[in-house]
Structures are given as structure tokens and as C-alpha cells.
Amino acid sequence: MPALPAFASDGDAPTSVIEVRQADLLPEHWLAQLPAPDRVILDRAGIAAQNARMRAEDKSIHDIAALPDPLPRALVRSQVEALSAPPTRALFDVHGKPVAKKELDALQRALALEAIPATQPLRYGLVVHRAALRAFPTRLRAFSSAGDTDIDRFQESALFPGDAVAVLHRSRDGQWLFVASERYAAWIEAAHVAVGDRGTVLGYAQRAPYVVVTGATVRTTYTPEEPRVSALQLDMGVRLPLRADWPPMQAVNGQHPYASHVVDLPVREADGRLALVPALIPRSADVSDDYLPLTAANLVRQSFKFLGERYGWGHSYDARDCSGFVSEVYRSFGVLVPRNTRDQATSPALDRVAFDAGDSRDQRMAAVRDLQIGDLVYIPGHVMMALGHQRGLAFMIHDTNGGSWRGADGTRVRAGLNGVSVTPLEPMLFGETETYVDRITSIQRIRPRATP
Q1: What domains sit in the chain, N to C, each tagged with a CATH number?
Q2: How far is CA 369 from the centre of its chain?
Q3: Which residues of 105-139 are buried (b: 16+ CB within 10 A; e: fewer)?
Q4: d(C-alpha 281, C-alpha 97), whole Å
Q5: CA dist., res. 452 & res. 307, Å (int)
Q6: First-residue to last-residue Cα distance in the chain
Q7: What is the DSSP string of 172-187?
């Protein structure tokens, strides 16, 4: 009989990452330490109140239903210019060559700012499959240094099947749309958006019954009959309406539906218009008929579903980055948080513990010792989620493209974790001399708020 792998047979065995043992990579290890794993941290009413507060108080969250119709030129132009400003630093392409000035100038012309009309009708659409949000209307990838092709500076985020957008503008060649969604405004390829009437678009996410994707990703069933909804990637927290009225003996895209969930998915017709068509999600897929209860146990389970996934800046690589990771974990509970780290870290709608340069290490360490599971810990440009404490250290799960610490000889070890990882907090280095603890800017908590 072959020997069991180290993580199963010897949980106390070290890994190559500082202070991390094999057992630390198992969700069961952290579940066993929870005193009340299934106690609800925030119930459905509390989450609804939290989301309402987020929409009312956080300026990074946009109510696209409240946009003026018609759209005035000044609003559209200000939105585009806020994102698509000319780059001020040298950029390199995938071959390590500098991006030429003529290419950057062409991107500015592609914005077609002069073509924005004085007013235009407000249009809405649904995203038809996972699609990149870009800083400019281009697929050109641009990087800060030659040879480092992981962080594309033109990549902003991604939207998912069923996400609602307001269409604000079109690129000069007509192949890209500048859209506003609840959490982001950026450029998306026009082929990924189906334009429909306001009621259908904004009502899509409110329909019931529904299913919520609770796996890291799931895919719709493959179907040659309807390629537009075949093997679509659905990421954690995506909510799709069920076709509860579907006749039980009627095939869906050539397949009997009894072993699947029948969902309505948006598709784009040849003329760009929105249609809704049935698709299947296997009953074996990791989905739920509602958002999961927000409990400590579920925070562990949901976060560990991403363990080992490659880091994807701005949701590139069909994956996610640090802020995308934590927001998608919380989205599986129905909790709305801002998209970007800087907005998450400063959101007035969360229970924030703020730090500045004048705060001592003792003050910071006191806050670290007080961390609770699910707390979000921010350093410049990065966010981590607290797992718990053990062996005198606070442990985090986070999606990181870096990771370094002091080796036994005192030199800096650069690990290049480049994915969703479990690490202790205290030994991790921010640069050559400072630790992550030294650079904590805030801790955000999603907890019930005390009544005044």
C-alpha cells in the first residue's frame, strides 16, 4: 500500500513556508479550533442592513438604477477620463519591449471623447459570460517592467454572467463599451454585453427562486445545441434565477433536466439585444438554493475552496486577486464589499479599526491578538483574511503574488507564493526592513453593529 501524502499522515510536518505546517493547509484543522463554528455572525436581516449601509455610505458603490436618463455629456466624459488617463510611466508589452508613444496615443483616440453627444438615452445590459474590465478599449497587455507579465496595468477587474451594467459610451471602433456596474466602471468588449430593457436587466438579480454558486467556480453543462451557454464559468457568489416552471419532461438543450438545475442565462443576439435562455447546472455542482449562513465555519470552508488558485491581478487568468478573493468569499453569504483594496480598506460602511504612522508596534500587536476569523487586514496594496491564532502567531489566508520573510541566516527569503496561501502574519516582510504588522493601515470587520 503506498504511503499517505505528508499532509494526511503527518500534519505536524513543516512546509517550505515559514511557520506553516501541513495541517494548516486543511480547513478541518481550523474548523476544529472554532469554539462555536456554526453560530451565525450576521443573519439575513443584518446582512441586508449592512448592504444598505454600504450602498448609502460608500462612494465606490454605484446605484446604476439612479443614473440620469438621458445621460449628460459631462457625466459620461468625467467617468471615462477618471479611468482612462494617459499613462505617466514607462510600460512594456508581453515581449518586454516598451509600449510606444504612438500606441498610447492611439488608445487615447480610441476613447472617442469628442463623439460623446450632449445627451444620450441611458441603456442597460447584462453580461453574458465572464469578461475582463479594462482601463482602455484594448486587449493590449502592459506591464511595469520588462519580463514581469503577471500584473497587466490595463486590467481592472471582471464581470460575471448576469451582472447588470449601464452602457455609458462606445469606443471609436465600436468594439468596446464603457459600462458602469455596481462596483466598477470600465471598458468591456461589446460582444460580452447584451442590451435589454431596464426592467428585465435590473430585475434579473431579484428573481426568485434562484441558485447561488458556492464553489470557487462551477460550469454550466456542456451543450452543442446552445454554445452561448455551454460550459460557462460561474464564480463564487454568482446568483442565477431558476426556471421553476420548466416542464419536468422537456429537454434543455438536448438533455433531460431531472439531474440538473434549470437556470435562465442571458445571451447576446446577433443584433446585440438581450435574450434569456435555459441552461443546466449539474446537481453535483457546488451551488446552494440560497446564500450561505455567515458563520465562522463557512468562512473557513469558503476561503479554503480557493487554496492554491493562481493569483490573477484584476481577475485575470480566470482567477482573482487579493481583494477579489475576499469579496467573493463574502459574496457567497450575500455580503457586498467594494471591489478594490483601497476602497475596502477605507470603507465607512464597515467596522473599521484604522492605523497611521504614529501608532506603535504594541498598539498594532494588540489589534493582531484581537483578530477574529473573517476580519480583513489591510497593508498598502494588499488584503488578508484572518483564520485564527496558534503557536503565538496570527494566521491569514490571502491571495498574494509575493511573500517573503527572514531565513535562518537573517537574509530575506522571497517565496513568490503567487496564489491563495495560508501564512502567519507577523513574520511576513513588507520590503527589506518592515513587516506586514508595521504597515497595517486598517482592519475591517463585518459584524453586527452595536445599537447607540
Answers
A1: 6-58+292-445 (3.90.1720.10), 64-205 (2.30.30.40), 207-288 (2.30.30.40)
A2: 27
A3: eebeebbbbeebeeebebbbbbbbbbbbbbbbbbe
A4: 44
A5: 39
A6: 63
A7: TTSSEEEEE-SS-EEE
**Length of the chain measured in residues:** 452
CA angle (8 as vertex; 7, 10 as ends), nearest 5: 70
Q: Could you tell me if 188 and 177 are in contact, meaning their C-beta atoms sit under 8 angstroms apart?
A: yes
Read off the C-alpha cell for 144. 511595469
- Using DSSP's 3-state secondary structure scheme, residue 117 falls into coil
Convert the pLDDT of each residue in 71-107 to its tens digit: 999 999 999 999 999 999 999 999 999 999 999 999 9
C-beta neighbour count of 414 within 10 angstroms: 11
Please check the confidence at residue 10 and state whether its pLDDT lies above 90: no
Residue of 223, 194, 180, 143 lying closest to 65 (CA atoms): 180
Q: Do residues 126 and 274 lie in contact, with contact meaning Cβ atoms separated by under 8 Å?
A: yes
Q: Model confidence at 256, in pLDDT bands (50, 70, 90)?
A: very high
343-to-83, 142, 338, 339, 350 alpha-carbon distances in Å: 15, 24, 6, 7, 11
Is the Cβ–Cβ distance between 136 and 83 less than 8 Å?
no
SS3 14: strand
Q: How confident is the model at residue 451 (pLDDT cuts 50, 70, 90)?
A: low
Max CA pair span of the chain:
75
Contact criterion met (CB below 8 Å) for 181 and 64: yes
